[in-house]
Write a structure and sequence with these properties.
Number of helices: 7
Low-confidence stretches: none
Structural class: mainly alpha
Mean pLDDT: 91
Shape: rod-shaped
CATH topology: Ferritin
CATH architecture: Up-down Bundle
Strand content: under 5%
Length: about 230
């Protein structure tokens, strides 16, 4: 015997609620299989649920759209931070800058590897360290590093950081909108279940196949088990 299964996606939930609400527009109150109270609840909830889903999609699309440019800013900032550290290390190896000066930048003496800049957080951290470090070294009378100059590094670092904060903000907005949408799903399922129960009750006097046809018109979804499909 076929069994019912509640929708498991937001689109399917909206589709189920819409099918029921459409019946309210087609029939008068006496012909409806659903009570007026449940129908009003479904109509009001559908409006809010659709709005929440649309808002989440808009937030997600904004995040994805912004991310395209953001990835370019990450790449350039990483390149400049990495290059500056490499040039600094070469200057130390050539004895143009004392090795002890590396501590000003937060770099270890005796180590000439570039720090791991895989993550955005690492770029943000090390970019700030080398900008501050170069400023302090110059204040002590040190000769500036060129190619890249710290001013050039700072420009691309600032562009990256602005995009970094913006992207984090967009991610937080998307996460909050998804949480709001997720919080409504249990209520959606509760209303859909009540609609389906009332619908099946309304048409229980009909032969089984006719009953299924009528219930499907109200959005009830039936699934056949594997054995039943084969038959």
């Amino acid at each position: 015997m076929p069994y019912r299964r509640l929708p498991n996606t937001d689109k399917a939930r909206i589709r189920a609620l819409k099918l029921a609400v459409e019946k309210d527009d087609m029939y008068n109150m006496h012909e409806l299989a659903i009570s007026l109270k449940t129908m009003n609840e479904a109509r009001n909830f559908l409006s809010r649920f659709e709005g929440a889903q649309t808002y989440y999609k808009q937030c997600f699309d904004n995040q994805i759209s912004s991310n395209r440019k953001y990835q370019g800013y990450i790449k350039i900032a990483r390149l400049y931070v990495s290059h500056f550290i490499q040039v600094l290390n070469l200057a130390v190896l050539r004895s143009e800058i004392k090795e002890e000066a590396k501590k000003i930048y937060g770099l270890e003496t005796g180590c000439y590897n570039v720090p791991d800049l895989t993550s955005e957080a690492a770029i943000a951290e090390w970019g700030q360290k080398i900008i501050n470090g170069e400023k302090r070294r110059l204040e002590k009378g040190g000769a500036p590093i060129y190619n890249p100059a710290i001013a050039k590094v700072s420009v691309h670092y600032d562009i990256f950081m602005e995009a970094y904060e913006k992207q984090k903000s967009l991610q937080n907005i998307t996460a909050r909108s998804l949480d709001s949408l997720a919080a409504m799903r249990d209520k959606a399922d509760e209303i859909i279940l009540e609609i389906w129960n009332q619908t099946e009750k309304k048409f229980e006097y009909l032969p089984y196949n006719e009953k299924m046809i009528k219930c499907k018109e109200y959005g009830v979804v039936y699934y056949y088990r594997t054995v039943e499909k084969k038959k």
